[in-house]
Amino acid sequence: MANYFNTLPLREQLEQLSHAEFMETAEFADGVNALKGKKIVIVGAGAQGLNQGLNLRDSGLDISYALRKEAIEQKRDSWKNATDNNFTVGTYDELIPTADLVINLTPDKQHTAVINAVMPLMKQGAALSYSHGFNIVEEGMQIRKDITVLMVAPKCPGSEVRAEYLRGFGVPTLIAVHPENDPEGKGWAYAKAYCVGTGGHHAGVLKSSFVAEVKSDLMGEQTILCGLLQTGSILSFDKMVEKGIDAGYASKLVQYGVEVITEALKHGGVSGMLDRLSNPAKIKAFQISEELKDIMRPLFQKHQDDIMSGEFSKTMMEDWANGDVNLLKWRAETGETAFEKTPAGDVKIGEQEYFDNYVLMVAFVRAGVELAFETMVEAGIKPESAYYESLHETPLIANTIARKKLFEMNRVISDTAEYGCYLFDQACKPLLADFMKKVDTDLVGKNFNEGKDGSVDNVQLVQVNEILRSHPVEVVGVKLRKAMTAMKTIKTV
Ligand SMILES: NC(=O)C1=CN([C@@H]2O[C@H](COP(=O)(O)OP(=O)(O)OC[C@H]3O[C@@H](n4cnc5c(N)ncnc54)[C@H](OP(=O)(O)O)[C@@H]3O)[C@@H](O)[C@H]2O)C=CC1
Ligand SMILES: CC[C@](O)(C(C)=O)C(=O)O
Ligand SMILES: [Mg+2]
Ligand SMILES: [Mg+2]
């Protein structure tokens, strides 16, 4: 199988990459009807599988789970997930032949084996869905020509797909139909109905392509969403301990700080997040985030370049073939970091204190969101897609860190995201070594405003505000957040 993207002529690559049409609410007026009464079989009951299935069933659709024979016989977690929630569970042979829609929600690494096992069993004219296009785009999987191939990709961890649905909201979602596989022209109707079933239409849906989804999703998860949150958390904790801050306090500030800080990002964008700081702290956060952007830009560009060329997927697939040796080594190293091993102290940290005592994280988040957005857009990804993959999803990933630190984040995200996160983290930490030498407790651990009179240069403040508010991620964010009227606030402290 050849990398599908690399087989396309340049003009076609750019065309597919640029798909990101924001869909108006009226386009979902038909609700879940296109899938009502259809037999929907999900393969895999893990992070996305279980949570999407719960939402789809609550939306009135007929959901059952096809699992590997061994998973059923050994009553593995996936079997427990599905049966504890009263779903019908069966083997591929039992469930796939009668399915109208098969949803493949197994790890990307397993897709080739899963599709090769499932495809011969699928009935003529059935549909096959993915939540990430890696198998189609990077591995070049060829699907039988009578099968409709679609994608409904929630821009968020599976746990949050369920949590947001239960809050009456949803998560921004990219939907797509593979141009090589839409023999009956029903792909978009199925994708829309499926997306309504997960609640995605409440938060914003982009009519995208497999190519655009893959090239943006990989970039977001490797850089700002997971990689930089990991690097920033570890460096922040280590710095506080080095400077004599109580380890329990440091652990709590980092674990929950990223969630509290990015909650402001979710509602008010980058400028809304910086508005939570005093004026002097805002100017400082602006200055150090500019410095961080300069240092990290080449690394962000390298990640995007390697994703576009297929170098990243080639390297990761080599690791798959090599028994995941790098993934497992990096996972073990992350588990051994002092941040991961130090429990959050039993100490009260007020909501505002998370901002005042953690200006460094505000700067990391601003730098990471803007850099990821800028790099994606430079590569031909549309601003709407880049916004979801940078700014909107950061708070949703931060929620997982607040639950159980980096272990929880890396457990909940896909294996592909986990690999990319470590890859970035390995390269980023040394890159920031000199920068971190200059960081003191005014930026992390203690109140930035302590001992200062709060005065600022008016002209400088106006300039900073102007630069923040006019960044393209803010411009598109204002537009996209208007479609998120049902967005719920999360109480964190
Ligand atoms: N994690 C996330 O939040 C997100 C994931 N995605 C995408 O969703 C898809 C699913 O990812 P994710 O939910 O993380 O996956 P998980 O790792 O959580 O999937 C685990 C499930 O897959 C099954 N499985 C594993 N290996 C095989 C195999 N060889 N054959 C059959 N079933 C297998 C497991 O069953 P068993 O008990 O038999 O091992 C289990 O039910 C991926 O394409 C991913 O990129 C998209 C957005 C976010
Ligand atoms: C965090 C990245 C993601 O793409 C996601 C949750 O959207 C994944 O692959 O897990
Ligand atoms: Mg994603
Ligand atoms: Mg992903």
From TrEMBL:
Annotated Mg(2+) 1 binding sites: D217, E221
UniProt pathway annotation: Amino-acid biosynthesis; L-isoleucine biosynthesis; L-isoleucine from 2-oxobutanoate: step 2/4; Amino-acid biosynthesis; L-valine biosynthesis; L-valine from pyruvate: step 2/4
Residues in KARI C-terminal knotted domain copies: 209-353, 354-487
Record text on cofactor binding: Binds 2 magnesium ions per subunit.
Pfam families in the cross-refs: KARI_C (PF01450), KARI_N (PF07991)
GO molecular function: isomerase activity; ketol-acid reductoisomerase activity; magnesium ion binding
Lineage, highest ranks first: Bacteria, Pseudomonadati, Bacteroidota, Sphingobacteriia, Sphingobacteriales
Active site: H132
Role noted for this protein: Involved in the biosynthesis of branched-chain amino acids (BCAA). Catalyzes an alkyl-migration followed by a ketol-acid reduction of (S)-2-acetolactate (S2AL) to yield (R)-2,3-dihydroxy-isovalerate. In the isomerase reaction, S2AL is rearranged via a Mg-dependent methyl migration to produce 3-hydroxy-3-methyl-2-ketobutyrate (HMKB). In the reductase reaction, this 2-ketoacid undergoes a metal-dependent reduction by NADPH to yield (R)-2,3-dihydroxy-isovalerate.
Source organism per UniProt: Sphingobacterium paludis
Residues holding substrate: S278, S414
Binding positions for Mg(2+) 2 per the UniProt entry: D217, E389, E393
Protein name stated in the entry: Ketol-acid reductoisomerase (NADP(+))
Keywords of this entry: Amino-acid biosynthesis, Branched-chain amino acid biosynthesis, Isomerase, Magnesium, Metal-binding, NADP, Oxidoreductase
